[in-house]
Design a protein that fits this description.
639 residues, Rossmann fold, seven-stranded mixed β-sheet, globular, binds thiamine diphosphate
């Protein structure tokens, strides 16, 4: 049977092993071709093909519940659950999501994108089933990388709440985005050794104990009376948490997986099935280098090279290089990443022998990363916590309670701020200005170009009196003209990019751009100039603190104030400006009128996926649309 003939998991129930294996080849090919053309998560999806087939073969989905952790590995699941026809639209505007999404399919039981949520959500489903007197199965599928998230242990600690079967499948490929790190990962590696081997190892160990010390222990072992639990029982850690451990099994052996799941279903308990898979399986370039192909832009299948090579360095790269050179001068600087050394630019510091020992990858553990940084700061270090804007949401209380309340000089570097494109709503970083701005003691900066980014990280390392955050988008640099020197910026001060022309007295427009959206202000000015309006343009640089006196003076001289940011308009920079304007009286303003405020930013709703520029255009963040709003809001007779 061909993949195009599979309309629902029912269609694979009668297939034999050969047919299932053939199907797995076709699925792999389809995933590879799709990602090569459109980009997406390749390595993880290639590793879960057989697992997905076996799950849909055994379980009665959607009545039985499958919950994918992160969800970046679920392309095969999409293909088997009625989305074959629309597969080519995935991650594009209006198309299928790159992650499971409840509104997209009844087979997507739980929406995901962030890691380590599946065990808690699955337990919720399992307890709901018990309370409702239902009998369906609940299965959570989680990678070894995502197991390092603290929520997983919170869920395991609670898992005895359910009275029937609740199955956790641990998809262990020894990789997070890069190789999994930490003691838990080492523990899983030990479990991957066949049990027989470990029993023999214990026997050898006991036999090697001198007779006068270990005689009775040895005799008990030889007679088979020694309870091996604790010495040879694989998965002891899980057993101690009352979770029954099974495995490890070959995650690419469909008959073995089917048999295992059929057996596990019958056990009225919380069961963890440990399977071993290979990330990138079936495409040698990805299995040899799964990190490179974890999340990848369009590429040539023959050699893995990018279809559209980036013409200039990324901002991530600019940050990484700047931090490396600063860390070489200032030995107090330490870098902290939550499983994203490459993604956040810290791998440069990690790969340099001079700074390597001051970089810590803590795994997918954003909360821990922040409080760990707080401890380091207490002892005089200058921790730089580099985490994507969307993932730092995880650590909100840690930022407040552990860092800001104690006014510790921790530096937060938020990459992927603003809209991120095809990863969509789970990954857009559009709330950070709102959530950081409301925290006392916090300084919040947004560079408008790559050189300002360098100056901001430099300023942050000198700023020892409070926590400080810098956020910047997923972008490449504007130019190759990157300065080598650094300049310290005055905290809280904006930069005047262009003064208003006197001949624009009729409509006095003040455009304030936040971060890289300063470019939209320049575009807007271009559109306005066609009507003879030459506005003042400001690079905000800081979202907190604000130079209130400086802003009030500017406001008093303008009739329309426009804020442009790629953050939610709720609580963002525009809101901060509204707070200042609310305190101004008309007597302070030229012309006797407090200027009107036009806040351009992201709406109070979750924004879908799509190319960044097209989403911005749709949301009114283009020079043309901003200019139109300004003219609509101009005081009567002024435009
Ligand atoms: C809270 C959070 N932090 C970071 C990420 C970024 N991220 C996506 S997948 C991934 C690695 C997941 O590893 P694992 O669970 O082992 O799955 P694999 O890709 O190896 O199949 C990371 C760090 C995320 N999605 N969520």
């Amino acid at each position: 049977m061909q993949l195009s003939q599979i309309h629902s998991p029912q269609d694979i129930k009668g297939l034999n092993t050969d047919e299932l294996n053939d199907l797995s080849k076709e699925i792999r090919e389809m995933i590879l071709n799709h990602v090569a053309e459109h980009g997406g998560h390749l390595s993880s999806c290639l590793g879960t093909v057989e697992l997905t087939l076996a799950l849909h073969y055994v379980y009665d989905t959607p009545n039985d519940i499958l919950i994918w952790d992160v969800g970046h590995q679920a392309y095969a699941h999409k293909l088997l659950t009625g989305r074959f026809e629309r597969f080519s639209t995935m991650r594009q505007k209006g198309g299928l999501s790159g992650f499971p999404k409840r509104s997209e399919s009844e087979y997507d039981a739980f929406g995901v994108g962030h890691a380590s949520t599946s065990l808690s959500a699955g337990l919720g489903f399992a307890v709901a089933r018990d309370l409702l007197g239902k009998k369906n199965q609940v299965v959570a599928i989680i990678g070894d990388g995502s197991m390092t998230g603290g929520m997983v242990f919170e869920a395991l600690n609670n898992s005895k709440q359910t009275k029937q079967n609740y199955t956790i499948i641990l998809n262990d490929n020894k990789m997070s985005i890069s190789p999994s790190l930490g003691t838990f990962s080492k523990y899983l590696s030990k479990l991957s050794v066949k049990h027989r081997g470990s029993i023999e190892e214990v026997g050898n160990l006991l036999r090697s104990i001198p007779e006068h010390l270990g005689k009775s222990l040895r005799e008990l072992f030889e007679s088979g009376k020694l309870a091996l639990t604790g010495l040879t029982n694989p998965g002891q850690f899980f057993s101690d948490l009352s979770v029954r451990y099974f495995g490890p099994y070959d995650g690419h052996d469909i008959p073995e997986l089917i048999k295992t799941f059929q057996d596990i279903k019958e056990i009225p308990d919380v069961c963890l099935v440990h399977i071993l898979t290979q990330k990138g399986k079936g495409y040698k370039l990805a299995s040899d280098n799964p990190t490179k192909f974890h999340g990848y832009d369009p590429f040539h299948i023959e050699d893995g090279s990018m279809a559209f090579p980036k013409p200039r360095p990324t901002l991530t790269n600019i940050f990484g290089k700047a931090l490396l050179s600063l860390a070489k001068q200032d030995k107090s600087i330490v870098g902290i990443s939550a499983a994203m050394l490459d993604g956040c630019g810290l791998s440069l510091m990690k790969n340099d022998p001079e700074t390597a020992e001051r970089v810590f990858d803590v795994g997918i553990a954003e909360e821990h990363a922040v409080t760990f940084a707080a401890g380091l700061a207490c002892e005089g270090f200058t921790p730089v916590v580099a985490i994507y804007s969307t993932f730092l949401q995880r650590a909100y209380d840690q930022i407040i309670h552990d860092v800001a309340l104690q006014n510790l000089p921790v530096i937060f570097v938020l990459d992927r701020a603003g809209l991120v494109g095809s990863d969509g709503p789970t990954h857009h970083g559009v709330l950070d200005l709102s959530y950081l701005r409301s925290i006392p003691n916090m300084v919040v900066m947004a560079p408008s170009d790559e050189n300002e980014l360098r100056d901001m990280i430099y300023t942050a390392t000198l700023h020892k009196s409070s926590p400080i955050a810098m956020r910047y988008p997923r972008a490449i640099t504007y130019t190759n003209n990157i300065r080598t020197e650094f300049s310290e910026l005055e905290v809280g001060k904006f930069r005047v990019v262009r003064e208003r022309a006197k001949e624009s007295d009729k409509l006095r427009v003040l455009l304030i751009g936040v971060g890289f959206l300063l470019s939209k202000c320049l575009d807007t000015a271009g559109v306005l100039s066609e009507r003879g309006i030459v506005p003042t343009i400001i690079d905000a640089r800081f979202v907190k603190p604000l130079d209130i006196a400086g802003y009030k003076k500017l406001f008093s001289e303008h009739s329309v104030v426009v804020t442009v940011e790629d953050n939610s308009v709720v609580g963002g920079f525009g809101s901060a400006i509204a707070e200042i304007l609310a305190e101004m009286s008309s007597a302070e303003c030229i012309g006797g009128v407090v200027p009107r405020l036009v806040r351009c930013g992201l709406p109070d709703s979750f924004v879908g996926q799509g190319e960044i520029e097209e989403l911005q255009e749709d949301l009114g963040l283009s020079g043309q649309r901003i200019a139109e709003r300004i003219l609509e809001n101009a005081p009567k007779g002024s435009a």
